Amino acid sequence: xxxxxxxxxxxxxxxxxxxxxxxxxxxxxxxxxxxxxxxxxxxxxxxxxxxxxxxxxxxxxxxxxxxxxxxxxxxxxxxxxxxxxxxxxxxxxxxxxxxxxxxxxxxxxxxxxxxxxxxxxxxxxxxxxxxxxxxxxxxxxxxxxxxxxxxxxxxxxxxxxxxxxxxxxxxxxxxxxxxxxxxxxxxxxxxxxxxxxxxxxxxxxxxxxxxxxxxxxxxxxxxxxxxxxxxxxxxxxxxxxxxxxxxxxxxxxxxxxxxxxxxxxxxxx
Length: 269
Description:
Order of helices and strands: HHEHEHEHEHEHEEEEHEE
């Protein structure tokens, strides 16, 4: 299937800065790990697939907590950053890093997994229905019966209502007075489907010498209800969601009695 939204140039370019997009990177990783452990509790989860690992915000704390993690991402820059962090936190032996995207997961990893996760607003990078369906079907196929799926994505509901143009980011300053400032300018295409383009601006330097970097990436601003419909069509059950700061987290379960979704007929291998 043709990949319509190449996100690699964006993420390769920002990988070195990625921890600075959070107020405190270590606190963020700890929050992610503890949040996922809470979801996994009493579900018999040991082996986890992180299908969009980025710089390791979820994969690394999960490894620290004792889970075995296969971590996949299409961006070589983000994978390099994740490997760097895995060595820094002494969990390299608990992690397997693999370069690839949602559309090729079935060829990249060896099932079954007790849990599949995709956080950090990765799913909305898929711009057409076929890509979204195939990704969720692949998650289903890679899980063991009774396995758990966790998806974290931006709450696009308010975005779709207000369609903001300017969104402020974060500002950091180190001991040498070097500053790092981010903000977004968003553009909207009515489609169909609606496509939102994030134009990320990074300003760094020390007064009076600054430089500005601009990078762009596209999203399909999916609602959680839209994703729930496809999860049901793919065969998942016990689908719930809850807010977690800027994300909505969806949790779904692969049933013990497996039935292949009719959707698979569209993607017979």
